[in-house]
Structure formats: C-alpha cells, structure tokens
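Section 5: illustrative case.
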C-alpha cells in the first residue's frame, strides 16, 4: 500500500513532524509511506486558481495516487494550524476538483497538553467529512508528547510505538474496505 502522510507544522523541530517520522519508521513491510511537509504551498487565494500553483497541483496528484492518507496535526488554539487548513483549501479546489473525494484517511496528533491534540483532530475530521473522505474512526490516536521523544526527535516510548503499530494495522484494514 502506498500511503501519503502529511504533518501540519512548519516548525523544524515539530513534535508532529517527529511523530510522522516515527510512524513512517514503524510501518509494516506491506506499507510504503511518503511523508511530506506543507512548506511550499502559498496562501490560498481564489484569484490564483486560474494559474494553479505547481506545488498544489503536485500535492493533489499525490493525494489522488495514494491508497490512503495519514494526517498528523498539532493543536493550535483548540483547532488545526493554518498551514493544514491552507493545504485542505488548495487540494479541494477549484470547486468540482476535490482531490479528497472518497479517499481513506487516518488522523493522528500530538501536543504537550493532556488532551494530545484531541480537539484539533475532531475539528480536522469535521472538515474531512465535508470533503467526502472516509475517515477512520477507531482507533483514535491522541499523544501527550511530554517525554516521548529525545532531543533529536526520535520516539523513545515503547508503549507509543506499540500504539502506532496497532493504528497502522487498523488503517490497512480501513483502506481495504474502500478498494
């Protein structure tokens, strides 16, 4: 299975980028994960749709060609970060050309708070539902990232590693339902 994974942070030492890298590193042999950041997308502007940015075109193609998509989101002010919303706007536009239509999607997130990006994930799932994706409901994955990563961004918590493996196994089953 070819999986596209995106993380919704621009920060170089982002916990969610580290989580995305950990997920990719723990993927089973039957799953190839391509991890992408969202650094190259310009701010969404409907005036630019007539000369659609190459970075947005390329990301739309990656979404369409993937068997499934995983989004790793931080939580900013009880919601998703602007860079993630910007990506969703570009890749679902122009009207009638929604790259997300019918795509199987899994959502993860981490924060240093006790709720582990729970509210951002729920908000993201609302948006993805509107975009007509097939969002995996269970298992949920909310990570309080305090003391789970070392200074280099490597996941060190064995329990979290096991939860990631279970998440990926269920995500494979989720994708298979829509093939």
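Designed sequence:
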């Amino acid at each position: 299975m070819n999986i596209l994974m995106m993380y919704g942070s621009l920060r170089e030492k982002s916990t969610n980028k580290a989580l995305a890298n950990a997920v990719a590193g723990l993927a089973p042999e039957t799953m190839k994960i391509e991890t992408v950041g969202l650094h190259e997308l310009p701010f969404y502007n409907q005036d630019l749709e007539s000369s659609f940015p190459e970075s947005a075109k390329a990301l739309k193609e990656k979404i369409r060609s993937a068997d499934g998509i995983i989004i790793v989101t931080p939580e900013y002010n009880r919601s998703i970060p602007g860079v993630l919303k910007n990506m969703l706007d570009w890749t679902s536009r122009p009207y009638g050309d929604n790259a997300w239509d019918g795509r199987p999607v899994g959502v993860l997130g981490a924060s240093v708070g006790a709720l582990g990006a729970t509210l951002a994930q729920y908000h993201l799932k609302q948006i993805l539902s509107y975009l007509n994706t097939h969002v995996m409901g269970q298992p949920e994955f909310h990570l309080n990232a305090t003391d789970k990563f070392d200074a280099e961004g490597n996941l060190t918590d064995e329990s979290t590693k096991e939860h990631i493996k279970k998440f990926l196994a269920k995500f494979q089953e989720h994708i298979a339902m829509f093939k």
